[in-house]
């Protein structure tokens, strides 16, 4: 049995993870943490892997505390930067432990990101629209940032230049934010859980790649896979695709 701790255990995702781990035949929940609970070598209660779905402002400090407590970590919380990745990579390597950070554990979203990067070199235009429930605290979504970065990298490697766009005035920011030059638009709407559309355009054609999570259970197979695959690794892994052989 894999001994699992959950941080952010009272939240929308954390509570769903507690149920999924409880239902998994090869795992057991041994520790639960939420706001105000201290993560120590004692309080992790022998956990081998911790799953963090907390909030962007605390996730990095949770990961450092879990590494100090001798636990490998699977992180779904968003809000990571290149600097926070670097600090965690260094800590995990020094401790000989593993951290897997993924902005999205839904199979559809992981594949949508992959398909977008595959398609990007063949289209002049690319934009990302992410759509989420109105209780989400961060924008753009971590998935949209990762998607845009993947598209930008694929375009650069293919030698593509600027996208066609004659916009001269945009006082309201209607053209969206830019992530590595790719326009990203965020929608917050009652009734949604998590959706993303990637629009790719050429003269006379458009490809739309869309992924929808209608329920938080959609993230659970990926989270459980992450827990199983993080064991035995060392250092920082970014993206579930990296442990799926994609
Ligand atoms: N990677 C994915 O597949 C995926 C899927 C859904 C959500 N998310 C991300 O997961 C995060 C959580 O989303 P949510 O909808 O569950 O949010 P939520 O607000 O429902 O839950 C966050 C929980 O973290 C707790 N918390 C606050 N401070 C804490 C601390 N110091 N230590 C431990 N817990 C603390 C809160 O009390 C709350 O219970 C967000 O960043 C969201 O974007 C990622
Ligand atoms: O509900 C959220 O919040 C989600 N956040 C992730 C993101 O920011 O990409 C993944 C989807 C759900």
Automatic annotation (TrEMBL):
Gene Ontology terms: cellular component: cytosol
Residues engaged in binding (S)-2,3,4,5-tetrahydrodipicolinate: 133, 142-143
Keywords: Amino-acid biosynthesis, Cytoplasm, Diaminopimelate biosynthesis, Lysine biosynthesis, NAD, NADP, Oxidoreductase
SUPFAM superfamilies: Glyceraldehyde-3-phosphate dehydrogenase-like, C-terminal domain, NAD(P)-binding Rossmann-fold domains
Dihydrodipicolinate reductase N-terminal domain segment(s): 2-105
Pathway(s) the chain acts in: Amino-acid biosynthesis; L-lysine biosynthesis via DAP pathway; (S)-tetrahydrodipicolinate from L-aspartate: step 4/4
Subcellular location, record wording: Cytoplasm
Pfam families in UniProt: DapB_C (PF05173), DapB_N (PF01113)
The keyword Cytoplasm is assigned to this record: yes
Entry similarity comment: Belongs to the DapB family.
PANTHER family, per the entry: 4-HYDROXY-TETRAHYDRODIPICOLINATE REDUCTASE 1, CHLOROPLASTIC-RELATED, DIHYDRODIPICOLINATE REDUCTASE
Entry-linked HAMAP family: DapB
Protein name from the UniProt record: 4-hydroxy-tetrahydrodipicolinate reductase
Organism the protein comes from: Schaalia dentiphila ATCC 17982
């Amino acid at each position: 049995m894999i001994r699992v701790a959950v941080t952010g255990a009272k939240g929308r995702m954390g509570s769903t993870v507690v149920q999924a781990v409880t239902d998994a035949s090869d795992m057991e929940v041994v520790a639960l943490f939420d706001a105000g609970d201290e993560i120590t070598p004692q309080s992790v209660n022998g956990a081998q892997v911790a799953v963090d779905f907390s909030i962007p402002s605390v996730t990095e400090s949770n990961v450092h505390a879990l590494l100090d407590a001798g636990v490998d970590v699977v992180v779904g919380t968003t809000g990571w930067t290149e600097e926070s990745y670097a600090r965690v990579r260094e800590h995990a390597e020094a401790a000989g432990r593993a951290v897997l950070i993924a902005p999205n554990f839904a199979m559809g979203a992981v594949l949508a990101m992959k398909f977008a990067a595959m398609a990007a070199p063949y289209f002049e235009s690319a934009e990302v629209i992410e759509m989420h429930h109105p209780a989400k605290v961060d924008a753009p979504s971590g998935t949209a940032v990762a998607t845009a970065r993947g598209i930008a990298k694929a375009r650069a490697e293919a030698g593509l230049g600027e996208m066609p766009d004659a916009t001269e005035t945009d006082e309201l920011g209607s053209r969206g934010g830019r992530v590595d030059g790719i326009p990203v638009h965020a929608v917050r709407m009652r009734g949604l859980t998590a959706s993303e559309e990637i629009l790719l355009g050429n003269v006379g054609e458009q490809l739309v790649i869309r992924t929808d999570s209608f329920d938080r259970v959609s993230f659970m197979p990926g989270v459980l896979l992450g827990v199983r695959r993080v064991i035995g690794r060392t250092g920082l892994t970014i993206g579930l695709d990296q442990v799926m052989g994609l």
